[in-house]
Amino acid sequence: MCPDSAPILNVTKLAKRFGGFYALDGLSFHVASGEILGLVGPNGSGKTTAINVISGLYAPDGGEVVLDGVSIGGVASHKLVHRGINRTFQVPKPFMSLTVRENIEVALAYGRAAVAPPDMADLLDEYRLAEVADRPAADLNNAQQKMLDLVRALATRPRLLLLDELAAGLNPAELDWIAERIKALAQTGIAIIVVEHLMGFIEHITDRVIVMNAGKEIFEGKLAVAVQVPQVIEVFLGGEHAA
Amino acid sequence: MPSAFKHALFIVLPLIAVFAVLPSFYQNHLLLFNFVIFLILAQGVNIIYGFTGYLPFGYVGFFGAGAYGFAILVMHYQAPAPLAVLAGGVIGVALGLLLTPLLRLSGAYFAIANLAASLAVLHFVANPALENITRGPYGVSLTGTFNPTLAYNAALVVLTLTLGAVVYLKNSRFGLALQAVREDAVSASMAGVDVVWMRVIAWLASALVAGLAGGVYAWYVSVFYPDNVFSGDFSIFAIVFALFGGVATITGPIVGVIILYGIYNLIGFTTPQYFQLIYGLLIMGLVLFLPAGLVSLATRRGWHVP
């Protein structure tokens, strides 16, 4: 990992409003190529909204998202994919009636043109989908659908990968395996932002975490340090535990 | 052998060949022509519904616009019929462009808005104030271009082009991306697919197909009224035929037209009371037991259906 290199993504004072509710309220952070950054926080703290804004599903209401020096706030998702951003979804969203192979074929064909596409067979093997390659995605179990979401993202050749609760619902053996895969991806130079509730998993794979509450950052640094900070303990466990 | 070539060789070519030689053996030329028209329209519905999920209840709007595009070029500019057919296609595409905002809608909302749009076009064309241009509600008579044999052959050309488009969609990355858009637009955009552009292209392609079909229909019948070429039966029949066979395939809509339009003509005129009963039961049975169409009898067994 090379988290000390220049940031690939800079998020500055990002705001996103739904009616009168601020899901993001001045969020700022950066992530470098090869770095694994964790976004943690209680439910409703704005983690997934941040991913949705960065990946172009929502236009920001304020602040700036800058990829490699270029502002990308409000740019359509497919254009961001072509610039090297991709993501997975909390609830996996494969193309259900298409086969696993066809799901990946679309992403290989329409992904970032500047980089040669990876090999289909390698992707299927590496993410344990080879045996189900010609089955419709609807036939896969939840863990396999999550892997297909990840492989579809990787097939577009991302430089910045946003993983939204990829590990949720995986068994311990699968968790160890996917942790190693994510670390291996970072070593290839991909910047990775991980949203997770599994703290052991986050501690194992991240270089740094941002703790969020009410759309704001309340801590940045190592997770081992974060759990000592009263403000962080308060938002996770309630005020009486923070003293 | 590439699958697109196989599909062209073993599906498109035999079908066109059969309909090209049938008029030599079978006297009811109009019936054969109507088969060809419904094969075109069912595949046009297949392009927009099968590959993108938009159910075009007002599909006849493009067909009628194409017929009137043909009529206006012939009546006012004395254009040769083949050129006027092309103009019908252009008018279909122009109407499709005008209606692209409908693609913001989905499901029943799109279907209803599309139906309303086709009615609006009908009443626009049938407006007596436009008598000088469209002949309004009094209908058009194009005796100068009347030539059923040539019009039939032109319909076969349009059918060939339409089937070619569906073979392309079935065998190309573009067609696969369209199906991805139909399945999940958000995921499709995260696969790098420009969802809006894809939908517009499919929409305009299906409008072009119906516009050309309307053009050859006007050429063939030569005398028609707005209610004829904007009849909702065209939309309903084309949709039912496509769904009955199975959309997002090449063969499904063909099978649907051959079986259902065949039954319609076998017993629909001679014993309409039984026809209504059998037709209704067939469609109910399909919706209940085979919602993905007849081809799903094969796909459920793991067979690949082109």
User: Order of strands across the widest beta sheet of chain B?
Assistant: 1-2
Task: Name the helicity range of chain A.
Answer: 25-40%
Mean pLDDT across residues of chain A: 92
Oligomer: heterodimer
The average pLDDT score of chain B comes to: 94
Report how far the terminal alpha carbons of chain A are from each other: 36 Å
Order of helices and strands of chain A: EEEHEEHEHHHEHEHEEHH
Largest sheet properties of chain A: 6 strands, mixed
> Biggest interface and its residues per chain?
A-B, 30 and 17 residues
Number of strands of chain A: 10
| Strands of chain B, count | 2
The arrangement of helices and strands of chain B along the chain is HHHHHHEHHHHEHHHHH
Q: Output the structural class of chain A.
A: alpha/beta
Give the CA-CA distance, first to last residue of chain B. 15 Å
| Number of continuous helical runs of chain A | 9
Low-confidence stretches of chain A: none
Largest sheet of chain B: 2 strands, antiparallel
What global shape of chain A is seen?
globular
Strand content of chain A: 25-35%
